[in-house]
Amino acid sequence: MTEAHDDSFGIEVIVPDGDKPAPCCPHGPALLFEKVIKGGETGRRFYACSACRDRKDCKFFQWEDEKVSEARLLARESENQSKRPPFTQQEYCNRFRKFSSLPLDEKKFCQDCQILLLPGEREAHSSHRSTAVTVAQLRRPSMLLRPLDNKKSNAQYLFTDRSSHFLLDTLAALGYRKVLCVGTPRLQELIKVRNLEQKHEPMKSLLLDIDFRYAQFYSQDEFCHYNMFNHHFFGGEASSAVLQAFLTESDGEKVVMVADPPFGGLVKPLANSFSLISKTWRKLQSSDSSNADMPMMWIFPYFFEPRILECLPSFTMLDYQVDYDNHPLYKHGKTGRKQSPVRLFTNISPKDVVLPKEEGYRFCSVCQRFVWSLNKHCAKCNVCPSKDGREWRHCSTCGKCVKPSWRHCQSCGRCALPDHPCGPAQETEGCFNCGSLKHKRKACPLKDTHRVSGQRSNARNRGGKNLSHKPLLKAKGKRKSGAARRAKKMAALSV
Ligand SMILES: C[S@@+](CC[C@H](N)C(=O)[O-])C[C@H]1O[C@@H](n2cnc3c(N)ncnc32)[C@H](O)[C@@H]1O
Ligand SMILES: [Zn+2]
Ligand SMILES: [Zn+2]
Ligand SMILES: [Zn+2]
Ligand SMILES: [Zn+2]
Ligand SMILES: [Zn+2]
Ligand SMILES: [Zn+2]
Questions:
Q1: What is the pTM of this model?
Q2: Taking the alpha carbons of 80, 82, 83, 87 in that order, is the dihedral positive or negative?
Q3: Angle at alpha carbon of residue 296, lines to 385 and 145, rounded to 5°
């Protein structure tokens, strides 16, 4: 084990406080990161891209205290310009109008460029693969566009009909008439398709997404090119004004947000963006709701529960399993190879979110929420304890419910997997917050004063070689840290 391993302890993101403008990459203002070293010391801070976890996708890097030359700033600006969408939202909208009026046999989509082709443009794409576009596909762009499959930054997992209908039915039943779709293109299109059927109360929706291919299908008040990791509107003030107008609840039209961020996303910046959206909403409210939070649903894997609740304490995790059409592994219940680990986190009262009985959910009157059939209420813990959809069991020695596969280990004094690396040696892992070997993170005296707790970024590839994410656990046979366990689960998610 080298010295270098010893002092490397993870990377933490510092949420901007508005003091100092961050430098921009093509994805808007970069995020400020801090290397955390054992002993609670912090390392040199640096800026890196907010949206891309892989340097291959965005190589932006700058030390916080670095002096950047004029020439480099200019080069950066022209690089940022070159990554802008080819059309403005207004232009996309005009193109869409023209495209819609074309006869069916002239409606073509270039698969290579992922763009709807107007008659004058076909020539330039003649060597590309193109397809005919049906009216149904125009209404459901997620059926036409190729899902982005970048495993690290932006794997686009699209809701199954089961999940998207559940979300929409639930929100409609709760009386919401405006849905802010953050990274949920499929929900937005379902809303529009339903409105056409005229069987339900009409709903409005606004899609905020970084994937500007969707801009082709929507008007200016239906789509904003947006980065949810830094709350950046690529279309500037005109675009953030669209959000403001949408969040204004006129004629009693209640608004709700549904966000489904990429699973590898950092919780803290996401929570910060959602809080800013809520703040904007609050400012637009009449005075009687000056303390209220905007109703929100955040879709994310269950193992991020502690992290999300740390950032947004008014949220609750619900048992509903969200599943995806194009995720091969995780499906609802037993239809996939595994149960989906993706859940709803919400600040809406859990008892009001009715989960479907026919799928095996039931209401727990003690917990006052709907739970999965295998999530049995434990009289000793007085909760329905299961997080992962399996039936947990109570360990009287630990005094809590644990995963069914865990067994109580006498030498460790706690429940663990039967083949866990056993013995007191693992305790040397120490505190995940400050690095002290004398206590665990929970008991860390620096926990509240230090900004080092919680989810670390996947810092691999950030800031070059010397900043690469070194393993937290050095010796073989040590128990995995929370972050390492999450990383393993995340890896499985991106199958
Ligand atoms: C896991 S997919 C969710 C799709 C959703 N399940 C649906 O069916 O509508 C993540 C979505 O967030 C978008 N996204 C990824 N990174 C983003 C970012 N930094 N800012 C805004 N949107 C982003 C993707 O384009 C994609 O639409
Ligand atoms: Zn970037
Ligand atoms: Zn093309
Ligand atoms: Zn219960
Ligand atoms: Zn229990
Ligand atoms: Zn136990
Ligand atoms: Zn043990």
A1: 0.87
A2: positive
A3: 105
Long-range residue pairs from 61-68, CB within 8 A, at least 24 positions apart, any chain: 61/462, 61/463, 61/464, 62/23, 62/30, 64/32, 68/23
CA of 413 to the centre of ligand 6 (A): 7
Q: Which residues contact 122 (CB under 8 A, 6 or more apart)?
A: 108, 130
Least confident of 20-24, 152-156, 417-421: 152-156
Higher pLDDT, 12 or 455: 12
With both helix axes pointing from N to C terminus, report the angle between 161-173 and 185-197 in degrees, rounded to the nearest 10: 70
Ligand 3 centroid to Cα of residue 105, in Å, is 18
The encoded tokens of residue 199 equal: 């069987």
Helix 236-247 and helix 267-283: axis angle, to 10°?
70
Distance CA 473, CA 468 (A): 15
Interatomic CA distance for residues 330 and 326, integer angstroms? 9
Pocket test for ligand 1, best of 58, 145, 148, 211 (most atoms within 8 A of CB): 211
Residue 354 in tokens: 């009715």
Continuous H helices in 29-184: 70-82, 89-100, 135-139, 141-144, 161-173
Helices (H), ranges, 134-266: 135-139, 141-144, 161-173, 185-197, 236-247
Closest CA to 133 of 114, 159, 157: 114
